[in-house]
Structure prediction request, 81 residues.
Amino acid sequence: MNRSAEMGEELAGQLLKIQQQYPNYVKEVRGRGLFIGVEFNSKNLFPVSGYELCKKLKYRGVLAKPTHDTIIRFTPPLCIR
Prediction:
């Protein structure tokens, strides 16, 4: 549990930096441990969907799950370093 909390803080911190760089696109970063969601601003994201963003992330080696049209979930394995 401690490892998950530590790694989750690190991942959330990096995602919050992205939110600060692109506040018009990233609405919120939330989660607990390594279970983290990123919600995008639907008005500024249109016509791109969360599914399309996940496909682009996959090509960069990042697996994520789209939820609804504007939320992406990151759930990396607990054994990441």
Q: What stands out?
A: The longest helix spans residues 2-21. The chain has a mean pLDDT of 90. Helices lie at 2-21, 42-45, 50-59.
